[in-house]
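Example record

The entry below shows one chain as it appears in the dataset: sequence first, then structure tokens.
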Amino acid sequence: MGNLTSKQPKCLTPIAGRSLLDWQLAALRAAGLSEIALVRGYQAECLQPGDCTFFENPAWAETNMVTTLACAGEWLERHDCLVSYSDIVYHPDILVQLINHPGDLAISYDQRWLSLWRERFVNPLDDAETFRRNAQGLLTGIGDRTETLEEVEGQYMGLIKITPAGWQHICALLAGLPPEEGNRLDMTSLFRRLIKDGVKISVTPVNGRWCEVDCENDLRIYEEHLAEANGWSHDWRWEIAQPA
């Protein structure tokens, strides 16, 4: 993200007049979630939204996503939780669908991912990763590099439902790893290991109405779509900026 994140976390990047974090908090609350926690790391002092609980990862520079998530273990071991990456924006209906989806571990995926990836990348396969599911709606593969679109049945979005039982599966896996290996673990690598261990991860499809921000070009693309759609409304009568 270049200079946009030189002095602040990525989630404070502005889009359509509000930070990514503001859009996320608004969507979570519109979906009926009143207890929200942030796991802070880089430039933690910049993140001070009201009505939120804070967990801290002081070792953020040496650890990866799963270790950061584990900093919120106090909640994850006691409550059904919805986990969101901090660099995505989404319609609250997507959250409601995931909340109501059965299973101890569940993720949302976008069936319409390709049209957006074609705008973001000259070759969508430069960024796309495998995503496979079976007829029972369970994840069978994710996160590997691929040279064929046939292996990409959807795009994992960075939204996860985890129940206490699901969190126990994750903790059991982490307990069997050397600390240095666990600290390097990203989320899709975690999913692959869980699948290998026989843990069920269910998937629920959506059709657009979300986006992720990985670079300044993403912001340009979304702002162009917003201009075409006359901007986003704050009462959620909008579609996330994504081509039809």
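Notes for this example: Residues 216-228 form the longest helix (13 residues). Residues 2-228 form a domain with the Spore Coat Polysaccharide Biosynthesis Protein SpsA; Chain A fold (CATH 3.90.550.10).
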